[in-house]
């Protein structure tokens, strides 16, 4: 990849040249909201990148939290990913459907659990198909391996910590939801949830970081943060609807060399779903 692009994103050409390389593991991490009317597992079964295994973000999650697909325990994550034939030492490429949508979440999960060589596929499966690249309906049967977990809890922001951040404005908040939801002008996709945003949050819709499913260059990413009023010399916590697209902002931050960032895993599903949280609406 050229030096004006993220070091964490690989091209379709790069991956196609390496199909069949035993040191590379490929994960299909597509996930959709009901309104998108797409079934990720059905699409995987109909045709996926050869050698890819399906990473189900609804299954590999903490089912005791009461929130959608929150981060599983390190032990549960290691067990699930090891069963997919993936170890922390592998080179791992994660993709989704549209490109730069839900794959960054799994990229982030893998990295905070100890994997280092993790990448997101530019263009996603939609781009791969559009370009007429090879697909397979063969479902791999990977040999289970050990994923030696090395969890970094400091990368995850809890609800308790988030309330402190909102109260003292000590850390910048970057929200990946669409502007309509952020400003309280559109309803949340989950029934009964208030829309709006946390006091002091910056609106950085997830779609602004890519174009046609491909991650924007570093200079454009940097300008995106500047336009939103985010100072890259200061710490940032990312958030979104349920902790998935927040990782797109995290990917952008880390692509720019920003290391003092965390992800609020409960995100708006937690904050907007409670009656005791402060919510701001309207354009300030």
Give the CA-based shape.
globular
Percentage of β-strand residues? 5-15%
Tell me the distance between the termini. 39 Å
Largest beta-sheet details? 5 strands, parallel
How is this structure best summarized?
The chain is an alpha/beta fold and 284 residues long.
Explain what you see:
It is a single chain. It contains ten helices and twelve strands. It is α/β, with parallel strands linked by helices. The model has no long low-confidence stretch (mean pLDDT 96). Strand 11, helix 9 and strand 12 form a beta-alpha-beta unit.
Search tags:
284 residues; alpha/beta; Oxidized Rhodanese, domain 1; 5-stranded parallel beta sheet
Question: Topology of this protein?
Answer:
Layout: E1 9-10, H1 12-17, E2 24-28, H2 40-46, E3 53-54, H3 74-83, E4 91-95, H4 103-112, E5 118-121, H5 124-130, E6 156-157, H6 159-168, E7 172-175, H7 179-182, E8 202-203, E9 210-211, E10 214-215, H8 218-227, E11 236-239, H9 246-255, E12 261-264, H10 267-271
Parallel strand pairs: 1-5, 2-3, 2-4, 4-5, 6-12, 7-8, 7-11, 11-12
Antiparallel strand pairs: 9-10
């Amino acid at each position: 990849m050229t030096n004006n692009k993220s070091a964490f994103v690989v091209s379709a050409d790069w991956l196609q040249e390496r199909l069949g390389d035993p040191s590379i593991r490929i994960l299909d991490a597509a996930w959709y909201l009901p309104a998108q009317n797409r079934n990720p597992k059905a699409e995987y079964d109909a045709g996926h990148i050869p050698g890819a295994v399906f990473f189900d973000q609804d299954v590999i999650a903490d089912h005791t939290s009461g929130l959608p697909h929150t981060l599983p325990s390190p032990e549960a994550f290691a067990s699930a990913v090891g069963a997919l034939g993936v170890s922390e030492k592998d080179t791992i490429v994660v993709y989704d459907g549209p490109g730069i949508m839900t794959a960054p979440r799994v990229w982030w999960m893998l990295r905070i659990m100890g994997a280092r060589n993790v990448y997101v596929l530019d263009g996603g499966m939609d781009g791969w198909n559009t370009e007429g690249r090879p697909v397979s309906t063969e479902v791999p049967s990977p040999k289970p391996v050990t994923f030696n977990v090395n969890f970094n809890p400091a990368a995850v922001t809890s609800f308790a910590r988030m309330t402190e951040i909102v109260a003292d404005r000590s850390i910048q908040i970057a929200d990946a939801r669409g502007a309509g939801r952020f400003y309280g002008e559109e309803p949340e996709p989950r029934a009964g949830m208030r829309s709006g945003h946390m006091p002091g949050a910056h609106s950085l819709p997830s779609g602004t970081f890519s174009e046609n499913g491909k991650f924007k260059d570093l200079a454009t990413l940097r300008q995106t943060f500047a336009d939103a009023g985010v100072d890259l010399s200061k710490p940032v916590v990312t958030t979104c609807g349920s902790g998935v697209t927040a990782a797109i902002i995290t990917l952008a931050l880390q692509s720019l060399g920003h290391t003092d960032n965390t992800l609020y895993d409960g995100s708006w599903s937690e904050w907007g779903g409670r009656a005791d949280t402060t919510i701001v609406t309207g354009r300030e």
